[in-house]
Write a structure and sequence with these properties.
The chain is of the alpha+beta class and 210 residues long. The protein has four helices and ten strands; from the N terminus they run βββαββαβαβαβββ. The strands form two sheets. It has a seven-stranded mixed β-sheet with strand order 1-2-3-6-4-5-7, with helices on one face. Strands 8-9-10 form a three-stranded antiparallel β-sheet, with no helix packed on it. Strand 9 and strand 10 (195-198) form a beta hairpin. Helix 3 (104-120) packs across helix 4. The longest helix has 17 residues, at 104-120. It is globular, with a radius of gyration of 19 Å.
C-alpha cells in the first residue's frame, strides 16, 4: 500500500524564495515560512492562526547552521521582538493553529519538545540554553507527541533537516558533536594519529570558548 500526504504550498506574490504558506490535507496546522526581510508583509497576511511554535534559522539553501525554537500566542507578530534582539536568523518557520486546537498547556509541552530536539540533534548551533520542564498532562501527551512529529515531517519536507550532521569534506577525519551536559562542541578525530582536535567555537560550562 502506498501512503501519501498532500502538501500544498502558496507562494505569496508568486515569489518562490519569499513568504510561503504550507498546508497538509486533513490537518489544521498552518506552516508559514517568513524571510527576515519580509516580516512586515507577512504580518499583514489574513486568516493566519495565532498559536504555535516556530524556529528561527540561519539557513542557506537548506543548510541550517543555527537554530532557536520558541512558542507564540501572537502569531507572526511574535517575530518583531526577535528581529530587534536576535541578529543571526534570516528565516523563520512557524507552525500555527487555532486556539481551540492547541491549549496553553499543550503549547508549553510542544515548545519543550521542540527545544529539546534542537539541543540534542544535528550539528548546528542552538540559541536555546535550557529545555523547559512544563507539566505534562498524561491524557494529552500522545497527541502533543503526534503534533511534534508532524512538525518535524513538515520541516524535512520543506528542506530544513534538523537531523543534519556536518561530516566535513570527503576524506577528512570524522566530526563528532555534543550538546549535552552544558557542553556544545565539535571536534575531529584522526584515526591515523590518535589525535582529537576541538574545533573553534566549542563551548563548555566550566571553560570559555575553546
Amino acid at each position: 500500500m502506498i501512503r501519501v500526504k498532500t502538501l500544498t504550498v502558496q507562494l505569496i506574490d508568486e515569489q518562490p524564495d519569499r513568504i510561503r504558506i504550507c498546508r497538509i490535507t486533513g490537518e489544521s496546522l498552518v506552516t508559514v515560512i517568513v524571510p527576515r526581510e519580509d516580516l512586515a508583509e507577512a504580518k499583514s497576511l489574513p486568516n493566519i492562526p495565532q498559536r504555535g511554535v516556530y524556529y528561527l534559522l540561519d539557513e542557506n539553501h537548506g543548510n541550517v547552521s543555527r537554530v532557536y525554537a520558541g512558542q507564540t500566542t501572537q502569531g507572526i507578530a511574535r517575530l518583531d521582538a526577535h528581529k530587534t534582539k536576535k541578529e543571526f536568523w534570516n528565516k523563520a518557520v512557524m507552525f500555527l493553529d487555532d486556539d481551540q486546537n492547541i491549549s496553553r498547556d499543550e503549547l508549553d509541552v510542544l515548545e519543550a519538545k521542540a527545544i529539546d530536539y534542537v539541543r540534542t540533534h544535528g550539528s548546528y548551533e542552538t540559541d536555546n540554553s535550557a529545555t523547559p520542564k512544563p507539566y505534562v498532562d498524561p491524557y494529552k501527551e500522545e497527541s502533543v507527541e503526534r503534533l511534534h512529529k508532524r512538525i518535524l515531517f513538515r520541516m524535512a519536507a520543506l528542506g530544513y533537516d534538523l537531523n543534519r550532521v556536518d561530516q566535513g569534506p570527503a576524506g577528512a577525519p570524522a566530526v563528532f558533536h555534543t550538546k549535552k551536559n552544558g557542553i556544545r562542541g565539535a571536534g575531529r578525530y584522526d584515526k591515523a594519529t590518535g589525535h582529537f582536535t576541538v574545533l573553534a567555537g566549542s563551548k563548555g560550562t566550566s571553560r570559555g570558548p575553546c
